[in-house]
Amino acid sequence: MISQFLRLEWKQYFRSSHWQKGIALKVIMVFFALYLIVSFLAIGVGGYYLIKKEFPDVDPLQMVNSYLLYAIFGDLIFRYLMQKLPVMDIKPMLILPIKKSKLVHYVLAKSSFSAFNIMGLFFYIPFSVVLIREGYDTAGVLGWLFLIFLIIQSANFLNFLINKNNIAFGIIATILVALIGLQKFDIYDVAGVGGQFFDFIYANPIYSFSGLVLLIGLYYLNFKELSTRMYLDGAVSQKVTEAKSADLSFANRLGDVAPFIKNDIRLIWRNKRTKTVFLMSFLFLFYGLIFFTQEVYKEMPAMLMFASLFITGGFALNYGQFIPAWDSEHYKMLMSQGFRYRKFLESKWILMVAMTSILYFLSFPYLYFGVDIFLMITAGAIFNIGFNSLFLLYAGSFNRKRIDLNKSGFANTQGTSATQFIIIIPLMLLPMLLYWIFNKFIGGNAGFIAVAAFGIISLVCKRYAMDYIEKKYIQDKYAMINAFEKKA
Amino acid sequence: MITINNISKKYEGAEVLNISSIEIPTGQSFGLVGNNGAGKTTLFNILLDLIRPTTGSISNHKVEVNKSEKWKDYTGSFIDESFLISYLTPEEYFDFIGDLRGMNKADITSFLSQFEEFFNGEILGKKKYLRDLSKGNQKKAGIVAAMMGNPQVVILDEPFANLDPTTQIRLKKILKQLTEDREITVLVSSHDLSHVTEVCERIVVLDKGIVVKDIETSTETLKELESYFSV
């Protein structure tokens, strides 16, 4: 039985859309994963020495211990927001001759291996190894590590019990805030007491087994709870959200592109992934803070141009690169309706331009960093509006990957192909190069002017560009319909 | 009038459709039957210019479907759920399609009011997105959308599948009314022999992409079809 389950897991993993990708994307993703792992390892290994260096008179283990309590509550909040019990996977098995208790154990055991539980270990394990190497008591460190492992697992199961219960979440959040407050205003030494507890475990590792009681208790509660709710209208149910219709009649003024604009606004707001893209574009506004505040980049104006493009281009870039794949689910229907393709493309263009303009207005506070920076952002915005929005539309005609709108937004690379990597060159490198050349060899404001002029020229040529883009889309229609049919 | 001329479709050497000639006069109710893989949906997709035929051409009211897009203005269709926009409510979806088909708000409202009985109170005003509706209700929305904007040609792939018995009967009534004035051509495919024989005056049987029967519906037709498929 267990081997059957494991085989299913294996297939689910390797047949998931993560792996059904081009080799280039796989390589990049593996590199990214390795990068994350190495970073965590580096913190784990280097953490000890770092603390030692910064606070020579504090014992690194005690230092870590005093903050563990915060880490645990922080972890719980993070889990509450992000982690879900993988209960849907067992829906097809409910009608098979498998004992319900076994299914429940399977779901719970599976959750034990979730990334939420493993990530932290990349810090704690190397940290422990370093501790032992540095002459700490081996049994003590192992006991300490064991308890932390148990606590992580307990947090895992506690989270499912809380199970999106807002009151419980409120309590946890309040406790965390209260703990921080108590510490901050010197009312009660939380860090000290928390630290003492973990120090005590280190000194008496045998007591780490007390965590086992907690874990078993929580597991048992989960088991009981879930066993009674293994029904389609219980735990194994899909949530149906109530539809909320906002009044979008203001868009009617846009004439015959209005239906598409309204549709796009709803598309963005009602689907997880597009919503993430939309909200993220406001985060990109702060991108400049990383660059403009550091002295190093003052010497590298091309990098500042790069940042400036991102400040206003967050939406156009992230949304635009997947046009028209956002509509891939119903692309067939659109293609059987009588409208000019131009209208469809025009609506996407208007959306990108409108959002870029809004982001530009929101970027005015960057004046704080001086007029030069602001001019750079302005040039970037003009370039984004003039050239990038048109180029993204053109690049979109090469998109051949379906996007399932209902899949989650974070770190979702569905729909990504080589196109997305190649288009970065003209989108980002071209303006950087333009700026660099004109800034270096002519100087003064020539850099901004060159970038802005390029944007304006593109905007002037919009009609011709659109004619060309429209033709390309119509020409590639069948290939797109065919590709968008294929589910990843 | 729809003229199908020498249409064939090959995928990597395997031929999935090969029709030498079918003519569907205006106002006819045309039924397409055949087992899975017979090529019904492929034919409809070619008719809607969603896939390209390997050879041949189809013209819809004298417009060759892959040369001009004029036919889109008078052709309504519903092939499968991918014709729905999953994140819209049914009302918003009808507004969208109505907009594209040149209807104003009042047109849409009065158009939808005809289908109150067909919707059976399960579509409008339910505060649900199309993706959260049941298969049958999704189908109802799609079928009605295909009839928006006074189309001359209505193409429905498997309209009876997933519908409840009451709705099936109501749909048959609607389809019959559509062709009553001999102005609207209706093309329907189905696995349900009794439904198509009831609705369609002409039935074409496809098998592995080839027309094996082309019959005018009579009282004998259902028996004939049943005996054909029971082999």
Assembly state of the chains shown: heterodimer
Shape of chain B: globular
Tell me the number of strands of chain A.
0
- Report the sheet-strand fraction of chain A: under 5%
Instruction: Give Rg of chain A in angstroms.
Output: 27 Å
What gross morphology of chain A would you assign? globular
Q: What is the CATH T-level topology of the domain at 2-83 and 153-230 in chain B?
A: Rossmann fold
**CATH C-level category of the domain at 2-83 and 153-230 in chain B:** Alpha Beta
Looking at CATH, the homologous superfamily of the domain at 2-83 and 153-230 in chain B is P-loop containing nucleotide triphosphate hydrolases
> pLDDT average of chain A, as an integer?
84
Give me the strand/helix succession of chain A.
HHHHHHHHHHHHHHHHHHHHHHH
Helix content of chain A: over 70%
The end-to-end span of chain A amounts to 29 Å
Instruction: Kindly name the structural category of chain A.
Output: mainly alpha
* Largest interface, chains and sizes: A-B, 30 and 34 residues
> Could you give a short account of the major beta sheet of chain B?
6 strands, mixed
Strand order in the largest sheet of chain B: 6-7-8-3-9-10
Continuous helix count of chain B: 8
The number of E-state strands of chain B comes to: 10
How many discrete domains of chain A?
2
- The string of secondary-structure elements of chain B, in order, is EEEHEEEHHHHEHEHEEH
Outline of the structure:
Chain A has 23 helices and no strands. Chain A has helices at residues 2-14, 23-54, 60-82, 100-112, 115-119, 121-133, 138-162, 166-184, 190-203, 210-227, 258-270, 272-283, 287-292, 295-298, 301-320, 331-335, 341-362, 371-396, 418-422, 424-441, 446-460, 462-475, 477-485.
